[in-house]
Amino acid sequence: MSSRAIPVRRCFESQRNFHYPKLMSTLLNTPPQATGYLLLFRGSDWAEGNGMSEDEINQAIERVNAWFEGLSTSGKLLAAQPLFDESVFISGKGGGSVTDGPFVEAKEAVGGYVLLSVSSLEEAVAIAKTNPMHDLGVTTEVRTTASSCPHVYRFLSRFATAAA
Questions:
Q1: May I ask the CATH architecture of the domain 33-163?
Q2: How do the domains of the chain map onto residue ranges?
Q3: Is a pLDDT exceeding 80 seen at residue 122?
Q4: How do residues 2-35 score in pLDDT, each as one tens digit?
Q5: Entry pTM
Q6: What does the DSSP assignment read for the chain?
C-alpha cells in the first residue's frame, strides 16, 4: 500500500473498536460534518496518447507530478491513489450478485482519487480546477467527505420524529 494512503487507513483503523449504542446515539444526535474533500478523476483514455508525442506526454506527466507535489508540500494532500481499470460490482440482498467490470466507458471510469484537507468546497473546487490532467481529457468530480453517514442520520432522524 502506498504511504500516501496510510492517513486514510489510520482514520478507519481508529474506528474499529466502536461501541454500537454510542455510535447510534452519536449518529442520531450529531449531524454529519464535512471532514475533507475527495477529488475523483475520470477518464483513462488519455493514456492512448491522443496524438501526443512522447515528449508531450512526458511534459504532461511532469506537470501532473508537480501539481501533486505542490498539494503535498502545502499540507492539503491527505491521500492519493491511482486505480486499476479492473473492478467488481457487488449488489443484491446479501451481496448475492457479483459481476466483474469495468462496465463504463473509459472516459467515465474512475482512474484515481485525491483526499484533500481544505476548509471549504469552494477551496477544493479551486484546487480541482488547477488539475493539469484536464488538458489530457480527464474530468474531476469533487465530493465532500462526511464524519458519519448522512443517509443514516436522515433515516434515524425521521424514525425518531415518527416515534415521538
A1: 2-Layer Sandwich (3.30)
A2: 33-163
A3: yes
A4: 444 434 444 444 455 555 556 556 556 778 888 8
A5: 0.73
A6: --GGGHHHHHHHHTTTT--HHHHHHHHHHS---EEEEEEEEE--GGGG-TT--HHHHHHHHHHHHHHHHHHHHTT-EEEEEE--S-EEEEESGGG-EEEEE--S-TTTSEEEEEEE--S-HHHHHHHHHT-GGGGGT-EEEEEEEESS-HHHHHHHHHHHHHH-
